Amino acid sequence: MSRPVLSVRNVRVSFGGLAALDDVSIDVVPGEVVGIIGPNGAGKSTLLNVVSGFVEPQSGEVRLEGREITGLLPYRRARLGIARSFQDARLFPAMTVRETLLGAFHERFTSGMFSEGLGAPLAREQEDAAQGAIDALLHLVDLHPYLDHRVSDLSFGTTRALEMAALAARRPRLLLLDEPASGLQQSEVAVMGDLIHRLRGGAATVVIDHDVPFVAALSDRLVAMDLGRVVAVGRPDEVLAAPAVIDSYLGGAAPVAAGGER
Ligand SMILES: Nc1ncnc2c1ncn2[C@@H]1O[C@H](COP(=O)(O)OP(=O)(O)OP(=O)(O)O)[C@@H](O)[C@H]1O
Ligand SMILES: [Mg+2]
């Protein structure tokens, strides 16, 4: 098997006395989509925080393409190619769709191999490249009608689509999505699944959601978590049938129930 893009080993995180992650290990190989499911408080978002650098684990390590990144600040990890979304969309409300996408391309061109230092103005050919890349992106997600609209004027579903497009614009090696379907109407959920597939461009992807059919359909493998531990890993059908997974949903929503209520 090829070297994992992401490798999380024996990670522990506790907040106060509570173990949010208790010896968690996961791998994501190139091109793979790994879905994470589990009840509220299972540690799913904490795991993404550990990978993206917002939470430091008490022990364990995180590797990106073999390089240890534990301890690096979030912006350094972003420059290494990790892009993440949050449970709530985080865009600038006063910016237009066009500005948001240009901003995302600017980050790409001013980091990594295009680096000229943060905040440096784009060279003319980079501006042209960014415009070309936006046009290419707009073939994948239909935001044309909204290009000059402010983010604050967009519907929730369109905001989410823009957020995905802005993440994709950075061409991440590793894409981390925390509840991309939450708050969407059922008809929009299918569109979002499709959009993620088109936009991720083959990037290794980790997606969390409470809408289990959505995650299962999107993912090559599922990781089920409960109380800070991984309770099952495997093909979606295997994981959804695992006794530990069925148990962890007892008394809560059944794992097949759709909807992202929290
Ligand atoms: N910054 C923090 N400070 C204190 N406790 C935290 C913090 N972040 C998470 N926790 C706690 O860690 C546990 C795991 O939380 P986490 O947000 O990772 O769960 P989750 O699986 O993402 O849940 P949800 O499905 O509700 O989003 C919870 O008990 C939560 O209250
Ligand atoms: Mg969460």
Characterization of this structure:
- The strands form 2 sheets. The chain has a 6-stranded mixed sheet with strand order 6-7-8-3-9-10, sandwiched between helices.
- It contains 9 helices and 10 strands.
- It has 262 residues and is an alpha/beta fold.
- The C terminus is likely disordered.
- It folds into 2 domains: 171 residues, P-loop containing nucleotide triphosphate hydrolases (Rossmann fold); 82 residues, no CATH class.
- The structure holds adenosine-5'-triphosphate and magnesium ion.
- The site of adenosine-5'-triphosphate has 12 residues, from strand 2 and helix 1.
CATH superfamily of the largest domain: P-loop containing nucleotide triphosphate hydrolases
How large, in whole angstroms, is the Cα Rg?
A: 18 Å
- Counted up, domains total 2
Provide the helix percentage.
25-40%
Listing every helix as H and every strand as E from the N terminus to the C terminus, the arrangement reads EEEHEEHEHHHEHEHEEHH
Shape: globular
CATH topology of the largest domain: Rossmann fold
- Spatially, the strands of the biggest sheet line up as 6-7-8-3-9-10
**Mean pLDDT value:** 87
Question: How many helical elements?
Answer: 9
Small molecules (ligands, ions, cofactors) in the structure? adenosine-5'-triphosphate, magnesium ion
Unreliable stretches, pLDDT < 50, 5 or more residues?
Answer: 112-119, 257-262
Broad structural category: alpha/beta
CATH architectural group of the largest domain = 3-Layer(aba) Sandwich
Terminal CA distance: 37 Å
Proportion of residues in extended strands: 15-25%
Give the CATH class of the largest domain.
Alpha Beta
Give the beta-strand count: 10
Largest sheet: 6 strands, mixed
